[in-house]
């Protein structure tokens, strides 16, 4: 049966949840949107003055009409903007997202991004990944720190978990022996977003493989010293990452409390 995205496919029943809902265990939202749009650089809207904003597609079910509508959403000057794109009628969320991105592009709602002349990247995808982790205080790091701080979590920033080991973590909970690293997709070889560079390919392959090996060595070194290592990709859902970190910290503190309590009982207190 042809699918046109024009609605009307579900005449006497509601669409299946798999047509619009994210399934448990699915790829992170950013990864899902990147794949559906055909790349992260293909998700931009024009804000004017040469500015671009990263957009996403939201699917909404309207039960009264049994229709699924797709909306383009982005942030501008601190406010969420939204624009209707089309109705979609595939039986899978993956296909409906892809169709919505296709329609948004066909309607001229998206802005094309181009490589600046001075860029050394081989493609827009590689440039986006390379810019994702330029050093400390990256955007994902700042957002994650803010989310944790609002939850009452206190930590040290950009410091060595072990003083005599020259490895710095982005967030450190010293008393709990938890080290958090926020990894950029390009520099750390993300399995979802890393795309090998074609310019100076041998150099970049050696560089990224070296970074991966260093990450593994860091994990092993810290684990051997009794530390818990948590790695967060820049594309991860940061609310979920904050929850994962908070749970790890609270588990450590709960275990420490139980050990202390047991010690009090043994000593007769």
TrEMBL record:
Coiled coil: none annotated. Gene3D superfamilies: VSR Endonuclease (3.40.960.10). Keywords: DNA damage, DNA repair, Endonuclease, Hydrolase, Nuclease. Residues 32-46 have a biased composition (Basic and acidic residues). Residues 25-46 are annotated as: Disordered. One of its GO terms (molecular function) is endonuclease activity. InterPro entries: DNA_mismatch_endonuc_vsr (IPR004603), Restrct_endonuc-II-like (IPR011335). Belongs to the Vsr family. This is Very short patch repair endonuclease. It comes from Streptomyces ossamyceticus.
């Amino acid at each position: 049966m042809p699918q046109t995205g024009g609605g009307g496919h579900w005449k006497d029943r509601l669409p299946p949840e798999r047509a619009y809902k994210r399934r448990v265990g699915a790829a992170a939202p950013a990864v899902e949107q990147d794949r559906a749009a055909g790349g992260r650089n293909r998700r931009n809207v024009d804000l004017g003055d040469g500015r671009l904003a990263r957009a996403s597609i939201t699917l909404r079910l309207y039960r009264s009409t049994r229709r699924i509508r797709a909306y383009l959403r982005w942030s501008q000057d601190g406010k969420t903007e939204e624009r209707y794109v089309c109705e979609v009628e595939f039986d899978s969320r993956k296909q409906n997202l892809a169709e919505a991105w296709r329609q948004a592009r066909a309607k001229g709602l998206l802005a094309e991004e181009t490589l600046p002349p001075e860029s050394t990247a081989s493609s827009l995808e590689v440039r986006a990944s390379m810019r994702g982790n330029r050093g400390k205080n990256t955007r994902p790091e700042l957002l994650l720190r803010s989310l944790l701080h609002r939850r009452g979590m206190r930590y040290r920033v950009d410091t060595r978990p072990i003083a005599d080991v020259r490895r710095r973590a982005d967030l450190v909970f010293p008393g709990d022996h938890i080290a958090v690293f926020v990894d950029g997709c390009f520099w750390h070889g993300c399995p979802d977003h890393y795309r090998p560079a074609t310019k100076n390919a041998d150099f970049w392959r050696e560089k990224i493989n070296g970074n991966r090996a260093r990450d593994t060595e860091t994990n092993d070194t810290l684990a051997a010293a009794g530390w818990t290592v948590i790695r967060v990709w820049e594309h991860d859902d940061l609310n979920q990452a904050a929850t994962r970190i908070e749970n790890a910290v609270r588990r450590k503190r709960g275990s420490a409390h139980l050990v202390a309590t047991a010690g009090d009982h043994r000593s007769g207190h």
